[in-house]
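Dear Dr. H.,

I hope your travels went smoothly. While you were away I took the liberty of generating a structure for the chain from your last submission, since the lab meeting agenda had it listed for discussion. I wanted you to have the full record in hand beforehand rather than looking at slides cold. The sequence, exactly as received, is reproduced here:
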Amino acid sequence: MEKFFVDSTQVFNDNIHISKEDSRHIQKVLRKRIGDRIYITINQSSTFLCEIISFDNGIVICQKIEQVLENTETNINISLFQCIAKYEKMDDIIQKATQLGVKEVYPVISNRVVVKLDEQTKIKKVQRWSKIAQEASKQCKRMTIPKVENVIFLTNICNYAQKYDIILLAYENDKTNLKEILQSCKQENVKNIGVVIGPEGGFDIEEVDELLNCENICSVSLGNRILRTETASIALISNILYEFGEL
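The corresponding predicted structure, in token form, is as follows:
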């Protein structure tokens, strides 16, 4: 059954008014009719089974039937610091990371990022990526939508270090065993983990050195093979989830 997100301004007692964009999708794409049911999450906190009761000037109006107790979020909070990948790769990374349960995504510019963005393009890209995260959250029935933050520079990650118990930097020249690091994190009851993934061309050694001088940041190996940026992000996130019993 399909799922949609609303905020409290769209709720009127037991009735919920769906946004115009989602209403169009419900009517034109899903071909829903009066009497059909969907899931609706309000304020990314409470989910209800709802029934479509009317179509009012293109707006779908639903009525709450019952609250649904669900637990689709992970107990470990993972933020992805992803160096911006070219073409459609960034879209795919955000979609897959959302499905895996990431809480935040920071698009990052490093020395070897190929994509060049002016300020206006950055805004449009973040809006696009936020929309992708929202659609992926609907598809996998998450309770929350990951927040896609504004674009930052790689060295700015140090400013966020104290927010996390640990930040893992995936670096191809490192030999630190990922499993050992994650087992240690689990024993220490770590809850907040940052993940840093480089661009297609990898990191400059100077960038790595600067990050590793920051508190709570350590580099890890993802194995003997060089992974593409879109593979590395999903591999590292998946390993974290597996080690913490979330897969």
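Two observations you may find useful: The CA atoms of residues 170 and 222 lie 7 Å apart. The first strand starts at residue 3 and ends at 6.

With kind regards,
E. W.
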